[in-house]
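User:
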Amino acid sequence: MASAKAQVNDKRLVAEVAGKGDYSDEPPADLDLIRARVVLPPNWLIYPSGLELPEMLNDIRERYQVWIVSSESTQAFDIYSDSISRLQGAVIAFNQLVHDLRLRKELLAEVLTVQHCARANKDTRISLKLMARPEVITPLVGRHDIPATSAALLESLRPHLINSTECLMSISSNLRMRVNFGILKAVRKKKEIPEVLTYDEFAEAAKTFSIRGGIGLHDRFSEIKLSNHIIKHLLALDGNGGIRLVKDSVRRAYSLTLRLNQLDQKEVWLQDWTGDGEVALPRAKMGVAMPTSYLNWVMAAPDMRIDWGLKADEYAVEDVPEEFHGLIKELKLKPARYKESGNFLRPAEVIFPRPGGWKDRIQQTRLKTSFIAEIHDTPYLLEISITQIWDKYKTKARPRTVWGMEIYGKHWDSAMNHVDAISRRKDWGEAQRNVWVGKDPNMWKRFQSFLEVVLHVQKHVEDIPPLTEENLENTESEAEE
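Assistant: Predicted structure:
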């Protein structure tokens, strides 16, 4: 055992190292330290991706003042400390990190679920062809049963909900979750899967797609007049047998996105943009153009007009480089004039200044014009938007224009990113009450209430009469699949 003087010297040396915050290298050879070894299985299928990155363990090193050294194979990790309590804390944090990283690896795959249909029976048939949407091709009888559909969806998603949300709470970057409506398309399938299936056979085929991919949700539509058509009918809802929009809450919003060139793979975002550069600059952010989706659930509804998905993306947000500050200050927005009550969304104009040093950095410009309204007696918002897309910064040219529809909690962005001061993990409250809000103490019932809101919107879109040829004249949009 080291002498009292040696122990004092060790503590002094540890304190000096701690003051410098240097735990990234090997521990000092002349310190009397305690060691714990964590050995991980070598199987690559369950080995946590990302653990081999040196920076992944820096937070644990600094928080517990420990050294963490991996072997060449990175299957064993030695953790060193002069304090048994800090060592124990570091081991617990390390194991939690391993658990979180494994979950992230497992959950990157898309989950495809077939939505229950109360009107289907054993004779119902679904067409499943390449480059086409899976659709019911036989007559359906009876009425929609939203409580039964939401209960069946809950049972399908129950095995995924806890693991997925636990994974999301482990992520340090910003999270953004949205429901998007769209059209499913199968881009590839196994040869043994027939082109005409029963509902049960389609549900089995969906499990294959979840594992192997080959089917995706296209959540951008090509006809702008259809977006205004849907808004008009949803605003007319009175709430009988479903939901209604709060008319006093309706607002229009603009968001500008500048995608940088291929080398950067990043985007500059101006949310709630008004065209006032002095206001926009402090709020402008930059992040990756293709965020990672740690929750990506797609609900196939072959008996309905549209499908939908729930996706939560990770956004590592950073400040905008100074070279773009002048551009952001000089960018101008020229909104469309709204004279007719039926025109809720119309294309606007983005006016760029004379090209400067940024001109070779911008690959694409996108302007999103949104209609946003609260869904009555719920914490959720409905957003229907059109997006104009220009090559580089050539906004005087004719843009490609698409539209989309989404639902999200008005509280989600703040509640999902709240971090506990002690654990440094995201905290969604007891039984995730801060995200899946409601009076019921049961999380599953609160989540089912959220599902019912989405299903009501899907059902109301189903009931909207199609556009007439007169509505479709002089269209302002171009198709993009």
